[in-house]
From TrEMBL:
<dbReference type="GO" id="GO:0050334">
    <property type="term" value="F:thiaminase activity"/>
</dbReference>
<dbReference type="InterPro" id="IPR050967">
    <property type="entry name" value="Thiamine_Salvage_TenA"/>
</dbReference>
<dbReference type="GO" id="GO:0009228">
    <property type="term" value="P:thiamine biosynthetic process"/>
</dbReference>
<dbReference type="Pfam" id="PF03070">
    <property type="entry name" value="TENA_THI-4"/>
</dbReference>
<keyword id="KW-0784">Thiamine biosynthesis</keyword>
<protein>
    <recommendedName>
        <fullName>Aminopyrimidine aminohydrolase</fullName>
        <ecNumber>3.5.99.2</ecNumber>
    </recommendedName>
</protein>
<feature type="active site" description="Proton donor">
    <location>
        <position position="208"/>
    </location>
</feature>
<dbReference type="GO" id="GO:0009229">
    <property type="term" value="P:thiamine diphosphate biosynthetic process"/>
</dbReference>
<dbReference type="InterPro" id="IPR016084">
    <property type="entry name" value="Haem_Oase-like_multi-hlx"/>
</dbReference>
<comment type="function">
    <text>Catalyzes an amino-pyrimidine hydrolysis reaction at the C5' of the pyrimidine moiety of thiamine compounds, a reaction that is part of a thiamine salvage pathway. Thus, catalyzes the conversion of 4-amino-5-aminomethyl-2-methylpyrimidine to 4-amino-5-hydroxymethyl-2-methylpyrimidine (HMP).</text>
</comment>
<dbReference type="InterPro" id="IPR026285">
    <property type="entry name" value="TenA_E"/>
</dbReference>
<keyword id="KW-0378">Hydrolase</keyword>
<comment type="similarity">
    <text>Belongs to the TenA family.</text>
</comment>
<dbReference type="GO" id="GO:0005829">
    <property type="term" value="C:cytosol"/>
</dbReference>
<dbReference type="InterPro" id="IPR027574">
    <property type="entry name" value="Thiaminase_II"/>
</dbReference>
<feature type="domain" description="Thiaminase-2/PQQC">
    <location>
        <begin position="25"/>
        <end position="217"/>
    </location>
</feature>
<comment type="pathway">
    <text>Cofactor biosynthesis; thiamine diphosphate biosynthesis.</text>
</comment>
Amino acid sequence: MSTPCFTDAAWQRNLPLFNATLALPFNRELAAGTLSRERFQHYMIQDAHYLVAFGRSLAVAAAKADDADGVVQFAKAAEEAVVVERALHDGFMREYAVSAAQFEATPLSPVCHHYVHYLQSMGWSRSYPVALAALLPCFWIYAEVGRAILAEARPNNPYQSWVDTYAGDEFHALVARVRATIDQLAAQADARTLEAMHQAYTDAARLEWMFWDSAYRLGQWPC
């Protein structure tokens, strides 16, 4: 029996966590189209803040890449995180009448604050393969959540554009390219680096769960 590649192994290690993510009230109600506007608005504002930091972390990864292809791949991914996905958020911001001033005045929630600082610290302080493993859940879990929700989303779902973005072929192709790069790096890594990559992936996958859970609870600082 052949040894599974890193990303397949990471997915299997964290499958119960992914299933728990799918089962979160936020995602169940998003699929049903019954998620409250207040909760989705809270999520969109926090996610827009998050994506700026995510883009910075991808740019750091691009700078650490050990070949030109990696530099281009993750510099482009950084641009897409900030520019392309922001277009999705801007549409919802207009629909929800969230002004630029309101967005800027809304602080990062505790979970969002923790997540972005985790990714940035991993990007600056850890090796290129480990930093990429920490970034992978944001790509891959969103893609699989989007696809799972698409399979059961009700007609005329008010959040259909969100579902279509992450369930779409273009986003899944991006995920496949990121996975391929990480698998190539993992194939050359020593045992210590591989275990660090697995831990980075799991920590980020936990933070993905926490992000959606926090959005449903309208998470904010206690004082």
